[in-house]
UniProtKB/TrEMBL annotation:
UniProt-recorded name of the protein: TetR/AcrR family transcriptional regulator
DNA-binding region: 43-62
Keywords (A to Z) from UniProt: DNA-binding, Transcription, Transcription regulation
Lineage: Bacteria, Pseudomonadati, Pseudomonadota, Gammaproteobacteria, Oceanospirillales
Domain spans labelled HTH tetR-type: 20-80
Key word Protein biosynthesis present: no
InterPro entries: Homeodomain-like_sf, HTH-type_TetR-like_transc_reg, HTH_TetR, Tet_transcr_reg_TetR-rel_C_sf
Pfam families xrefs: TetR_N
One of the record's GO molecular function terms: transcription cis-regulatory region binding
């Protein structure tokens, strides 16, 4: 095949493709800078410079820095939901104890995803002062989606006889959140090996408290 034929076979990049690529690049850069410096200390000028475009060009993709931040927040929330769904699907045929342990581990290690993990922790624990209401709305919507999954999960555990009969569904869900929130917070203080060691202790106590018999 001649060089000309090879060139002809390569799909051309349309303006729409280029805009989508720029939008994705802005999100990746914004995620990195927000995670590293926080919302207040990150400017659109910095994001534009890192993307190799002029600041006004950002407005072709996002109305404001707040709009970019909130979209990244929704993305992070969606990714946490996707992680939960993936864990439940992957371990669907495993005993309930293994399914629960895997789910807790996956949620806890979400914080270690490069850039996104730190961003998620910042968004969840320290939302920007000017965006508290919007951030809380995203968090509440995310929790509602997680609640539905956890409710179905704990009810399946009861049907399988894996959980003690007196364990209330809402108590299980509350304890699950406390463990995840606590482990996410501890990632600010401990390196991963220490967090994994602490997880083993947390898991031992939690499973002893919820298991049947």
């Amino acid at each position: 095949m001649s060089p000309y034929q090879t060139w002809q076979a390569t799909p051309s990049i349309t303006l729409e493709d280029d805009l989508l690529n720029t939008r994705d690049r802005l999100k990746q850069i914004g995620l990195s800078l927000f995670a590293r410096h926080g919302y207040e200390a990150t400017t659109l000028a910095q994001i534009a410079s890192a993307a190799g475009i002029k600041k006004p060009s950002i407005y072709n993709h996002f109305d404001s820095k707040a709009a970019l931040f909130l979209e990244l927040s929704r993305d992070a929330d969606d990714d946490m939901i996707a992680l939960i769904d993936a864990s439940l699907a992957e371990m669907a045929d495993a005993p309930f104890e293994q399914r629960l342990r895997h789910l807790l581990q996956q949620c806890a290690t979400f914080a270690y995803r490069e850039h996104q993990g730190v961003f998620y922790k910042r968004f969840l624990l320290f939302p920007p002062h000017d965006l508290v209401a919007e951030a809380e709305a995203i968090t509440e919507q995310g929790e509602s989606r997680i609640d539905r999954r956890l409710l179905a999960f704990v009810q399946a555990g009861h049907r399988a006889g894996a959980l003690r009969e007196t364990l209330a569904d809402d108590h299980f869900i509350a304890a699950f959140y406390c463990i995840i929130d606590g482990l996410l917070s501890e990632t600010f203080m401990y390196e991963r090996p220490e967090l994994e060691r602490r997880f083993e202790g947390v898991w031992s106590v939690f499973w002893t408290g919820v298991k049947a018999g």
